[in-house]
Amino acid sequence: MEYNLWGNRKFHLELKSLILFLWVTLLVVSLFKCFSVPHEQAIWFLLSSFNVSLHVSGNNTTLNATSPPNQIKIGEIPSLGDGLVNITDPLVPSYNVKIPDMEEDPEPVEKVLNDSRQENATISGGMREKRKEENRVLDKQFSLSPLGSPLLDSFKNGLVPTSSHKQFLLSPLGSPLSDSFKNGSVPTSSQLNPFSFNLSQLGVQVTKDVPKSEISEPLGNGPPISQRNLTIESVPLIKYTKEKVSVVQKKNPMVQSMSPSSLSGSSFRPMKPRWSSPRDKELLSAKEQIQNAPLVKKDRDLYPPVFQNISMFKRSYELMERMFKIYIYQEGEKPIFHQPLLTGIYASEGWFMKLMEANKQFVVKDPKLAHMFYLPYSSRQLQITLYVPNTHMMQPLSLYLKYYVDMIAEKYPFWNRTGGSDHFLVACHDWAPSETKLHPELRKNTIKVLCNADSSREIFKVGKDITLPEVYVRVKNPVAYVGGKPVSQRPILAFFAGQMHGKVRPILLKYWENKDPDMKILGPKFYGIGKKGPYIEYMKLSKYCICPKGYEVNSPRVMEAIYFECVPVIISDNFVLPFDNILNWKAFSVVILERDIPRLKEILLSISEKRYLTMQARVKRVQKHFLWHNKPVKYDLFHMILHSIWHNRIHNMRL
Predict the structure, then answer these.
(1) Domain 487-626 has CATH 3.90.1150.10
(2) Cis peptide leading into residue 335 (ω within 30°)
């Protein structure tokens, strides 16, 4: 009996010793394997050792620990489709990744993606965060069928790419990447730029932080990013913070007279550059010289009464001519890019593009020498090419422009340095402001030169953005019909004729059509609107030309009035007048609130004859600043637009 008890005790002790030995052996082996495998891949080894795998099926994602058939392997991460997205080995070890814990509370894949997209860190050439507004639009799933239709036909059929398909617009039309969509197939991972691939879309969260010292240098020049062997350590990681919007007040009275306008609801705060540039110092030096401009009382080429501050303008213009350099991106396919339209109501954007791309004084081929960067797109050509009439679908236009800017940010470091603050675009179509909505930095930071300059809308930022004068060019020579009759040959008090666009014009006709012989207020039946005939002649025979808003705040009648030496009467609340921080519009025009239309004649008659003669003479003086020329002339419209871009960039810089 005692022997049996002793034997049992011995057996149990040996069994415990054996179990302890096995545990120690297993621990030693595990530790040895962990240290023998590269530390970046240890987590994958441990997961595979314990048979942990990630299943992705449709919208359901589960984490299993029971030896499933498909395990996660190095170099393979499940995609949202049927296949696997292959990530090359040199790229994967560069990240410390965490697989979201979905064991306790399983979530659909779409919710995981939405949560991960809100991370500030993204892996792309531009390193830009995925803003909530962008995600809210791009996360909508749109069909790409009928498959096999050409790229532009897909847009014209009202088909919009999903966020996972955005790369087909980043490549030139007709390239292998866009052709893959034309043939009804989704581009493979080898066709995508590695820095446009976002691991957060696969439930992998980036936790790698980059030291501040690595953010001070741009990517630099060299081969395209898609051909570089880069890792996360060599790309700046930009973290965004929300900044409170406010108006920058200037105390110097001379600066105030030429500082950006400040209308309610349109203030902004420019961002600081993410790393310094010699060009910034040059602009700051110019700003100081402008603030200390010598006093100018008379000038041979400029008429002081039509300027807010002729001293500062003259000094600023001189510095612009001497210093200002612009780089034009060559990317972008015709007709949307690099193909200006030179006639019609939206011709101003085309004339600027034509003259800018042919210019040798301001344009540089080396982007490192540039103070600003021009995005050479035509809002009119974009509308003609992609918009399907009567569909009311403008999103394809906005997406196209957004993906173009994404491509620029991935290919060059310049956009990322300032978040687009040193970039500008020039667009005259009424839809141009809305075309920038889907790209947060383009909407907020980039200088937009727009005909549709509506201060009541959040998109147009007064003081940063610029009003592009809307010039209706009827023939190839934009100054063919310029000029008017002398005051003694202007018997008509006020003239208007046009279509009933918008809400203001019907009110104008309600009160004044055929109501007074001195007021020639006519409707759409008037013969010769937009032609060489009676319309232009009536403007040349009138003292005041009524310029009411149409569907939008802008109207070509303002420029037509100046061209034909008729004092413009502007009826358009919230319209930011062209170059209003440079020119004194009160000196040569009349601005009337929309609610005062019933008092129109009373207001005009209250202006004395002497005052009218002064304003009409100033219209003739200011005319030179609103003319397009086949070859730019000093102080003409081309140079005035350039100066406004130069001026706003200088006065809105933050270092």
Answers:
(1) no
(2) yes
